[in-house]
Amino acid sequence: MEKPRDGGARHDVVVVGAGAAGLACAGDLCAAGLRVALLEAGDTVGGRMRTDRVAGFTADRGFQVFNTSYPQVKRRVDLRALRLRPFTPGVLVHTERGRRRFTDPLRRPADVRDLLPGRLASGRDLLALLALSGRDALAPAAVLRRGADGTAREALAAAGVSPRLVETFFRPFLSGVFLEDRLETSARFFHLVWRSMLRGTLCLPAEGIGAVPAQLAARLPPGVARTGTVVSALTPGGVVLPDGRELRSRAVVVATGQRVAAELLPGLRVPDGRTVTTLYHATARPPLDEPVLLVDSRRRFLNSCVLTAVQPGFSSDGRALVSTSVLGSPGPADTAAVLAALGEAYGTDTGDWEPVHRVTVPDALPAMPGPAPLSRTARWAHGRYVCGDHRATGSLQGALASGTRAARTVLEDLRAGAV
């Protein structure tokens, strides 16, 4: 093999991948005074947190929401600068008896009628929900992390939630959260997610979800982040680029998605990924004027919402933009069936809805079948580290926390002279 050419000055650390984890890691390393190169193969930072401008609409790279309760978000992100607008607390559930509202009675006491016994849940279910939500909302996250693990379905059963409510609400709703419809995801992760929803507010930034990583990147020193820079392999002295140049560094952090991480770090075990497709439709009249998430008890789609009811600026011509997500990658017949289901769920004719965008995201989330570890070590080998949501919980909080952990480990090793 030809020896790589010298790519210039040596860095303390090269971080490969400028998604949320890589940005957090690079930011902490730069703050510690290290010379850092953050290399991103794509044309912009953010990884899966991307926003497209399509036919006059703002459409995220798959449906994504921003949760204000995450500790890493509070630490790193200027929320005011994002110009956030919230979703209505709660969810609309399309059932055989029409739409029902599952809401937080503490935030929307006027909307609790569908939680009355005999409508969406039984009296026993309401008591179980009260106990489950009270525990998860009030308990420190560390306590939930140390709890016994299993699956989300087992956690709901242990909490006393009836199979009927699981099938009517929790399974349809959580399918869109975990991108799997069997409720096999880690029980501990379920409790943490439920906690974050009870304590936080789900929002959308005015410029789309891509504004979040853009803000993190803007805080890096000039020249640290380099887009359009593919890393072909790791070398004993750094990384090698496709043109044969070697960027030398004392340490390398691989902060890519799980597939690329496994290629760059042979032997690294990574979880399977969940694939989701988001369909975007434009319509002259919004099927709902409310910024609320709609799910289907028959699970013909994961979730749907009128994005322009949340952020009117997502449309340049006044038309409504509807986002709908489904598992996998549906074919034409499946897409037509989804549109028909949307017509039923929204109670409107979808025949004139214009398809304006479609995004399929492979590995949108790492699979976390319970029991599962909520975090993994960042240290892979001598001078080699790894981070990303596949090394933690599949969330923005998990990705940022994993990047934080990797930076801390690198700094410990550098100061100890271990690399």
The percent range for helix content is 25-40%
Q: Ends: how far apart?
A: 25 Å
Strand content: 15-25%
Shape: globular
- CA-based gyration radius: 22 Å
Low-confidence stretches: none
Derived from helix and strand composition plus strand pairing, the structural class reads: alpha/beta
Distinct helical segment count: 13
| Rounded mean pLDDT score | 94
Number of strands: 21
Q: Please describe the biggest sheet, giving its number of strands, its sense, and whether it closes into a barrel.
A: 9 strands, mixed
Short descriptors:
419 residues, globular, four-stranded antiparallel beta sheet, 24% strand
Can you summarize this structure?
The protein is an alpha/beta fold and 419 residues long. It has 13 helices and 21 strands.
